[in-house]
Amino acid sequence: QVQLVESGGGLVQPGGCLRLSCAASGSIFSINTMGWYRQTPGKERELVATFTSGDITNYVDSVKGRFTISRDNSKNTVYLQMNNLKPEDTAVYLCNARNVHSIRAGVHVIGDYWGQGTQVTVSS
């Protein structure tokens, strides 16, 4: 069973920084895209940044120049470095892995998975 475990959230003052990590575990032999989304109460889940297996990154306009996504394929881990944080960045950040190829009970499985989320609060 593939699992995604996030870490690194917390409370930070405006202008501060945080680094989120998300590690995928299980009998994985490849992951196409890993990324981060965020959600606040009453709003739709928003894509923050993605990193494909072809090393292509994509960011929502509101974080460009402040956030950097990176990936360590040897560890099936994706990171999100968040600098110059703003109060509007406050949200639950969720890790996503798409087109994950894994083995479950001897069967080749392709699936999409989500982490449990980590809270990021930007406040003075």
Summary?
0% of the residues lie in helices and 62% in strands.
Structural write-up:
- Strand 4 (28-39) and strand 5 (46-52) form a beta hairpin.
- With 124 residues, this protein is mostly beta strands.
- The chain is 0% helix and 62% strand.
Classify the beta-strand content into a percent band.
over 45%
How many helix segments?
Answer: 0
The average pLDDT is 96
Specify the helix fraction band.
under 10%
Give the tally of β-strands.
Answer: 11
Sketch the topology as an H/E string, one letter per element: EEEEEEEEEEE
Q: Specify the overall morphology.
A: elongated
Low-confidence stretches: none
Radius of gyration: 15 Å
Oligomer: single chain
State the major sheet: 7 strands, mixed
The N- to C-terminal Cα distance equals: 40 Å
What brief labels describe this structure?
mainly beta; four-stranded antiparallel beta sheet; elongated
How do the helices and strands line up, and which of them pair or pack?
Layout: E1 3-7, E2 10-12, E3 18-25, E4 28-39, E5 46-52, E6 57-59, E7 67-72, E8 77-82, E9 91-104, E10 107-114, E11 118-122
Parallel strand pairs: 2-11
Antiparallel strand pairs: 1-3, 3-8, 4-5, 4-9, 5-6, 7-8, 9-10, 9-11
